[in-house]
Structure to design on (537 residues):
């Protein structure tokens, strides 16, 4: 084979890559020729011997199931006939939230190639994702290995690059410490919500971040709930489990939220008769009594009262307590060394028992000023301000969805960005749920916030949402888009985000003089170009 030479300006494989000089030159030449970077015509996948798909398994790379609003049954239907790794991707909650430490495609690839053994990291997907991944994982050893692409032999024969551990605070596997500074309630009066502005000191960890990033928080379980569970076990809180007391293990290490299948398996071993059959059915994802969706760990113990698993076996049957991710609502450029979140405290009642969100109430009431906690910064996956500071931005963030857009505005102020800024914000009531009212009004007065459009769903007889306000101002929205504006959504994936996108399609059709199909294509093109970005949950 004739060795191809490279112009000195084209360096795809860096000099410090873990290849010999000959291997590096060959790979550089191969990639330049394949991609057409030397002025030649780029080779098709068939011409250069590479099968379709990054793993040579015939996949076309498209992921129509990658929609956070789509039910898992619909996602799996779309993925039928695709390679195993792609069906695993469809099983996930499709938010690329990073909470698992991956994006959805990389997590599924890692499970399929056995480099990741944990099947329960998709927090948004919960039990239904874990069950489907477990089912799909049974196929792993039945799937033949994909044929290597041309040139892969040279890569495979090179020494493996040493695994680089992320710096402290840059990944969930290696968190840093932050200091909790303060919280203050953002709601007023008779609000039905309980939302806090929460601040942290990052100076000791020296962590920084970019607006659009998320903040991972390792919360702790409520001590009152833990002690009730210990009482149901009939155990002592000082019982040793994994070199900790039972109380410490239940507070710090395991999830007490939805009861996992393994817990029902354990309960089936230590009970009998109808109770055993019921526990087995629950472990298989069945719902014999119609209450499976409401069974957290405490409710499961109450349902099978009198069964007292050994504390160590009990803890082993539970899922690890996962960190929670929150959109950052501050700018490092504006307040270096400090970081803030906008957090809704989750509280609800099932039966007669009050239940709470683990991290939201941890931040809203249980952590004290000056306390340390484990944290990390999760880099944004395709969500951030445009590189050109002159580009206008339209931000749609009702409720806590305002968080990243407060950060955007503070950052644009700190950096002197000249682009126009338009914020759509909404909530239930204007008198008690107008988060950051004084701050936003000051931004509007100063000219930083070019437009502030509000929508209150409970102020009038008819509910009125941000998407309704968008339609009302559709001509101006279209004008901004025609001027090159980037549009952002943050908030609920299943309702708000889809309603906003539908409104956007209608606006493009009406004021851009397009058919509905053309408007849908226009919005899809905005997404491909990075001009329409979403941070949804």
């Amino acid at each position: 084979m004739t060795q191809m030479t490279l112009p000195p300006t084209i360096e795809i494989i860096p000099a410090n890559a873990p290849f010999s000089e000959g291997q590096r030159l060959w790979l550089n030449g191969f990639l330049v020729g394949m991609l057409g970077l030397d002025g030649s015509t780029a080779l098709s996948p068939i011409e250069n011997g590479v099968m379709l798909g990054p793993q040579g398994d015939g996949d076309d790379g498209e992921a129509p199931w990658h929609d956070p609003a789509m039910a898992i049954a619909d996602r799996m239907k779309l993925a039928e006939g695709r390679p195993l790794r792609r069906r695993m991707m469809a099983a996930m909650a499709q938010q690329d939230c990073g909470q698992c430490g991956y994006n959805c495609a990389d997590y599924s690839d890692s499970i399929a190639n056995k480099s990741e053994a944990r099947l329960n990291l998709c927090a948004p997907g919960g039990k239904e994702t874990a069950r489907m991944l477990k089912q799909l994982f049974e196929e792993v050893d039945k799937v033949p290995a994909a044929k290597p692409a041309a040139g892969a032999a040279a890569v495979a024969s090179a020494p493996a690059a040493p695994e680089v551990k992320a710096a402290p605070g840059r990944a969930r596997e290696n968190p840093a410490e932050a200091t909790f500074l303060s919280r203050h309630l953002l709601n007023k009066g008779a609000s039905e919500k309980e939302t806090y502005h929460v601040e942290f000191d990052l100076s000791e960890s020296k962590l920084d971040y970019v607006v659009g990033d998320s903040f991972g928080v390792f919360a702790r379980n409520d001590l009152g709930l833990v002690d009730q569970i210990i009482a149901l076990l009939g155990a002592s809180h000082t019982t040793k489990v994994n070199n900790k007391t039972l109380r410490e293990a239940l507070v710090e290490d395991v999830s007490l939220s939805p009861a996992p299948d393994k817990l029902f398996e354990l309960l089936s071993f230590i009970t009998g008769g109808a109770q055993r059959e019921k526990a087995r059915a629950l472990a298989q994802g069945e719902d014999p009594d119609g209450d499976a969706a409401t069974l957290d760990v405490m409710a499961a113990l109450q349902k099978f009262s009198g069964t007292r698993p050994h504390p160590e076996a009990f803890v082993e049957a539970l899922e690890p307590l996962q960190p929670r991710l929150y959109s950052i609502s501050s700018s490092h450029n504006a307040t270096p060394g400090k970081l803030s979140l906008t957090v809704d405290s989750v509280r609800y009642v099932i039966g007669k028992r009050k239940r709470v969100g683990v991290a939201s109430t941890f931040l809203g009431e249980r952590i004290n000023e000056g306390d340390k906690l484990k944290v990390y910064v999760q880099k944004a996956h395709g969500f951030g301000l445009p590189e050109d500071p002159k580009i206008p931005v339209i931000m749609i963030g009702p409720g806590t969805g305002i968080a990243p857009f407060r950060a955007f505005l503070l950052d644009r102020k700190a950096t002197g960005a000249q682009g126009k800024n338009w914020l759509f914000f909404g909530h239930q009531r204007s008198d008690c749920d107008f988060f950051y009212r004084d701050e936003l009004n000051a931004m509007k007065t100063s000219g930083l916030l070019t437009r502030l459009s509000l929508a209150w769903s409970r102020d009038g007889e008819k509910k009125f949402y941000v998407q309704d306000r968008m339609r009302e101002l559709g001509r101006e929205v279209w004008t901004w888009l025609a001027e090159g504006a980037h549009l952002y959504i943050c908030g609920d994936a299943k309702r708000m985000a889809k309603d906003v996108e539908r409104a956007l399609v209608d606006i493009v059709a009406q004021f851009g003089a397009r058919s509905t199909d053309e408007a849908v294509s226009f919005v899809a093109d905005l997404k491909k170009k990075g001009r329409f970005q979403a941070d949804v949950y």
About this structure: The chain has four domains: 44-162, 176-219+323-378, 223-317, 393-536. The domain at 393-536 is CATH 3.40.50.80 (Rossmann fold). DSSP finds 19 helices and 15 strands in the chain.
